[in-house]
From TrEMBL:
It comes from the Bacteria. GO terms for molecular function: alanine racemase activity. This is Alanine racemase. Its cofactor is pyridoxal 5'-phosphate. Keywords: Isomerase, Pyridoxal phosphate. Residues 19-100 form the Alanine racemase N-terminal domain. It comes from Cupriavidus pinatubonensis. Its EC number is 5.1.1.1. SUPFAM superfamilies: PLP-binding barrel.
């Protein structure tokens, strides 16, 4: 499944970025196969490195990923509606004292 993740109108860049979500999912599945029974997470900080976390994360969830890492709490808050409630979102740059209920029950610092 290939999907263009931004407005394809020319903006003087002269290029069009096409993201192949099935290739991203295949890469995750290949990593998961290598780790055996261990958890295999997806690091989708910085808006999935500019690819669009709210598009990438649900595709990875569909591939079986249930653990997601972001850099900042604001990224986790933006991502939460895009994933089912059983997906765990971990925040890399956050102390547990910074997270108050009800947010504390949705994200792991």
């Amino acid at each position: 499944m290939k999907e263009v993740l931004f407005n394809p109108k020319p903006i003087n860049a002269g290029a069009l970025l096409t993201i192949d979500l099935s290739a991203i999912c295949a890469n995750w599945r290949a990593l998961k196969a290598r780790v055996g029974s261990a958890e295999c997470a997806a690091v989708i900080k910085a808006d999935a490195y500019g690819l669009g976390a709210v598009k990438i994360a649900p595709a990875l969830y569909g591939a079986g990923c249930r653990q997601f890492f972001v850099a900042h709490l604001t990224e986790a808050i933006d991502l939460r509606p895009a994933l089912p409630s059983d997906a765990a979102i971990y925040v890399l740059h956050c102390q547990s004292t910074q997270v108050k209920p009800p947010i504390k029950t949705q994200f792991s610092p």
